[in-house]
Amino acid sequence: MEPDDVRKILEPSHTALLIWDVQRMLVDGLFNRTDFLTATRSLLRAARARNVPVFFSKITPLPERFESPVRKMFLKRMGGIRFSPGGLDLAIEPADRDTVIPKHTASMFVGTHFEHLLRNAGIGTIVLAGIATEIGIESTARDASNRGFFPVIATDAVSSRSREAHERSLRNMEKICILQTGAEIADIWGGSEA
Questions:
Q1: Distance CA 84, CA 24 (A)
Q2: Which of 88, 121, 126, 152 has the CA that lies 20 to 30 A from 144?
Q3: CATH, residue 136
Q4: What pLDDT digit, counting tens, does each position of 4-51 carry?
Q5: 58-84: pLDDT as tens digits
Q6: Parent domain of 72
Q7: Residue 194 falls within a domain, yes or no?
Q8: Separation of alpha carbons 38 and 54, rounded Å
C-alpha cells in the first residue's frame, strides 16, 4: 500500500479511534504497561486535537445466569479471570465528548450499536488501540474488515499479558489490516498532540 493511500484512509474526517478495554484489571497485567499507556495517551491526544471521534469499549459482565457458557469457559481457561471491584474502571479517562460503549463480547460489532454509529457519521476507518491484541483487537479488526471498514492497528498502543501472543497477532493482522505506530498515525493526522 502506498503512503498516499494510507493518508487518505486515515483522513480525520472519516476516521474514528476505538480504545478497547483499557480497564485497570487488564492494564495492570500487561507485559509493557508503561510504554502501552504512554503510546495510547499520545494517540488519544492526537485524535482529540484533530476532532477524530473517540470510542471506548468497556467490559460489562452480564448477570451470571445470562452470561454465555462459551465466554465462561474461555475466561476459566485464561486463569479464571474475575471482575474485581474497581478492576473494570477505565485506566484512561474518557472526555465528555468521547463515547463509552458497554459490551459483552470480544468484538465491538457484536451486541452493540457501534456499526450503526459509525455509518451514521460517515466513518469508514477505525484506528484500534487497547487490550488484548490477540483477543478483542484482532476480533474487532477482522469484523471491521468483513463489514467494509478499514481497520488500522496502532501497533504500540495495543498490548497483551503475553508478548508472544501480542506479536503473533500483529503478524496475523498485517495481512488484513493497516499497521502503523501511534506516532505515524498522529503525523498523518497533522502531527499535533495538543
A1: 10
A2: 88
A3: 3.40.50.850
A4: 799 999 999 999 999 999 999 899 999 999 999 999 999 999 999 999
A5: 988 777 777 777 766 766 665 555 555
A6: 3-188
A7: no
A8: 17
Inter-CA distances, 22 with 51, 76, 132, 144, 147, Å: 21, 21, 9, 20, 24
3-state secondary structure (DSSP) of residue 149: coil
Helix then strand count (H, E) for the chain reads: 8, 6
Contact 79, 41 (CB under 8 A): no
Please tell me the distance from the alpha carbon of residue 73 to that of residue 144, in angstroms, as a whole number: 25
Angle at 35 between CA 187 and CA 99, to 5 degrees: 65
3-class DSSP state for residue 126? strand
- State what percent of residues in the chain have pLDDT above 90: 77
pLDDT of residue 190 exceeding 90: no
